[in-house]
Amino acid sequence: MLTASAAIAGCRAAVFDCAGTLLRLDPTSEQIFHDAAAELGLDIDLAEIARAYEIVTFALPIKSSELPTQAKKDAFYAEFNRSLCVVLGIDRSYERLHPLLLARFATRRHWVAFDDAASALSAVGERVAVHALANWDQHLDEVLVLTGLRHLIGDAASSEQLGAEKPARACFDAFLERNALDPAEVVYVGNEYVADVVGAREAGLTPILVDRTNRLPYADCLRVKSLLDLAPPTGA
Hints:
Layout (H helix, E strand, L loop, with lengths): L3 H6 L3 E4 L6 E3 L3 H11 L6 H14 L10 H19 L5 H15 L2 E3 L3 H9 L3 E6 L5 H7 L9 E3 H4 L6 H10 L7 E5 L2 H10 L3 E5 L11 E3 L12
Parallel strand pairs: 1-4, 1-6, 4-5, 6-7, 7-8
Antiparallel strand pairs: 2-3
Helix pairs in contact: 2-3, 2-5, 3-4
């Protein structure tokens, strides 16, 4: 049975997603929302907020390539936060909560690397070329520098730069063309089934799902619980 490590060894390049794969928010979006709501006297269970984020993110996926101006970004997040309030049953508090959320996210939202990210990128990079492709805005490169991962990655491309969002094939095709890569020789590592697994597979890449919390044990693809599982076995 083919393992993720073996798939890496047999490819020419390994391309990584970023949010949820290499990077995480500290604190989480749910925690920032929870704390902002608490400032207004709203006591909402963190699990309920997490569920609301899942629902709203599915209905209103963030598409950086379609938000080229600040005005469009402002309109998107206004709708996003209003939808969160509706799902949570606190829509009457939206007018007070929305500006507070914007302020708190602006000061508290920080990306950090997962503990296994640097080691895994380094180990994989000793075998094949390592790149990053993410649904992100123009600041992807800057974030990778700040989180200490940029020097371990070759090309880092955002959906805003490429003009299309995963899982659209156009996003993967643009990246492959940009790096002169044959999809049959590329592995794509990501944490979202639709955007990363389905998208990569339909573009001809071999997907590897990062499932840190074992949410999709029966996923029809290669799956790892840690990025370290991508490294070659000790002594190999």
